[in-house]
Amino acid sequence: MKFGLRLRGGLLAALIMFGAPVVAPVGAIFVSSSALAQTVQSISVEGNRRVEVETIRSYFKPGPGGRLDQGAIDDGLKALIETGLFQDVKINRGAGGQIVVSVVENPVIGRIAFEGNKKIKDEQLTAEVQSKARGTFSRAMVQSDTLRIAEIYRRSGRYDVRVTPEVIEQPNNRVDLVFTVEEGAKTGVKSIEFVGNNAFSSYRLRDIIKTHESNLLSFLASNDIYDPDRVEADRDLIRRFYLKNGFADVQVVAALTEYDPDKKGFLVTFKIEEGQQYRVGSVDFRTSIASFDPTSMRNFSRVNVGSLYNVESVEKSVEDMQIEASRRGFAFAVVRPGGDRNFDAHTVSVVFNIDEGPRTYIERINIRGNTRTRDYVIRREFDLSEGDAYNRALVDRAERRLKNLDYFKSVKITTEPGSSSDRVVLIVDLEEKSTGDFSISGGYSTTDGALAEVSVSERNLLGRGLFAKASVTYGQYARGYSLSFVEPYLLDYRVALGLDFYQRTQLSNSYISYGTKTLGFSPRLGFSLREDLALQLRYSVYQQEITLPYYLANCNNVLGSSAFNPSPAFANLNGIDLSSTSGLGCYSDGEASLPVRKELANGKTLTSALGYSLTYNTLDNNKNPTDGLIVDFKQDFAGVGGDVTYLKTVADAKYYQSLVSDLVGLIHLQGGILTKVGSDLRMLDHFQMGPNLVRGFAPNGIGPRDLNPFGTQDALGGTKYWGASLELQMPFWFLPKEVGLKGAVYADAGGLYDYQGPTTWSVTNEMTTPKNSNCIPSTITPAATPGTCTGLVYDDSKVIRSSVGVGLIWASPFGPLRFDYAVPLTKGKNDRTQEFRFGGGTTF
After folding, report:
1. Rounded distance, CA 220 to CA 222, Å?
2. Which terminus of the chain, N or C, has less C-beta within 10 A?
3. Does the pLDDT value for residue 784 go beyond 70?
4. Cα of 640 vs its chain's centroid, Å
5. In terms of pTM, does the model score above 0.90?
6. Residue 450 bridge partners (DSSP)
């Protein structure tokens, strides 16, 4: 159906002046000279049903003296047409020169329906179109809605969409409006090319941008869909990347897009002019403020002589300096960076100019677009408020914080003039997005077996900026649930309060003979000391107990007793017949180690600990880092009540460095010390290590171990460990970047030693190891006197464990997956190896 709108109106004064007989077009105005003397009240209206007569008359504005002239009549006609309420408007001359306004009202829309739309729901389309049920039908508006629906589909990657509106007439001047949609196939990005890039490969630049090429797994993601806004944003990401790496003259000249009908997709080409790479030649500080010492700002500069020129470092330095100047009482100080390029030496001389800025104050902060998020959640991200001096650095910081909240699709802060020349109004424009998540996660690893998790979380609970999450985990060897809650602004301070309640059950498996049940609660406080430095204080209280399978707990080795049913006995032990009903034969199906059985006898144990973590993070990307350093230092003191006491200290550092040809080097150092404080240490409090320290070894496969040849030979753990790893990660250049595969080669070394848990247990009727013959009387009879067993024989050698291996890392749509094959080079006599290891998971 075609839509058209006929605009009626015009001035025929010239024809009337000449008295020429004419045939008037529809909507023409016949006004005699006597009509010009008419008033608004003398206008008659015909054809109206819903619109009141006085409403129509109100569009005709009389001139001086309350009389209508020809201009007022023309303006009234135009205004009536623009309301969209009428299909047709005519102004004619009635008897005695009276003005007659004849109208044909637009129909009322009874209902709006959508047909053929499968990818986009009716509710979303209804919210986007301007035509509304029970509203006035307008052909121009319907045409606009048709284009809007097509644009929504194009934004979702369907450029072959066709939208056809259909109007179904109903009685009483009503119509039904139906939009029929032919969605068409998804239109993706078939290729991404870069022209002019010499310093960085196309493979590396594809890591920077958000747009990806289509591949076999694209149905699990949406970043391969062609979106012109995203392509334009990619231009800025490329430019920022070059500016971070010293290319001060870089220009991303264009992002050329072309639809290829043969490939049924878009070809995107970025044209880059890199320019030279610069280093910092000098850093200077200048000011025009008489009482201000510019050199005092040197400590706040992140720009160092000799380093690559980095625009982000310059921007952060400007922000820190301007905030510091404001703290010192120079509220209107403005820091402006400057740089003189030396094209021959390829250096930039950076100058920070600190001057007095205009004395401008913030009159108001207007927030728009937050339909769900409370105003105070947004305002608390500002370090300034109404009446404060305007500080651009603080405004930029607030904008960055709002974006980092991840509550909004877009955040933009602009300024408007205030009520006077020294006042500005901050306008905060927001577009909210969904902040709730429901996920079903699944994974498998050689350590934990199959594992599944269901979780529900909300990042902006009730629009108050609160975080809440509930999850349930069920797997072969691990089960449990957890509840988490975070208040990011405790008592209106920038301090995050977190509460965690959890229950975990670890079942026995091929790597550990016993299971554990843990029920705990942990409140914590988080502080951001700087953008790259964070502190967390925590308190942990948890109850833990050991569980043993029936076949390891079916015998207490009570000498001279027949109160149990032992399994078939060994023929003899140290020359002593064990085939009697003495029960010593329970060793035939294994026996858990002394520390395990002692912990089992102790029952439930309560641990109460205070701790803190200090984290330094300069990684360029937390998920896929290629450059930067992250250091975690943690300490926990147990003994604030509870049943155990110790001091545990752990440090972990990872340093990433980009090398040539997209290679990334990784140095990983780690270490820990468990210190005895007061009471004896439990085995469960010791460090347990395996592939998390040196790959190529089984879980709990490294360190001190029980040597009982007839028992389970449990890993006992250690109080000291250290580890070092060198890894080289490389892409597979012959594969498309979007596949997400890269390889790794590595070498690991480390050690775990110094077991300080229980080694003796003076318990009557308990046999610990075959070596302790004092547990076995010289004559075994049912009436023999029970013995007392003490002593644990174990291996605690300080041998260095080392290995070399290769890995396959896959950033798959199913989540991060990693496959490792490592060969131990040096190991302890009783260590357990596992050359192949696999782990990963997903959320879908």
Report:
1. 7
2. N
3. no
4. 36
5. no
6. 444
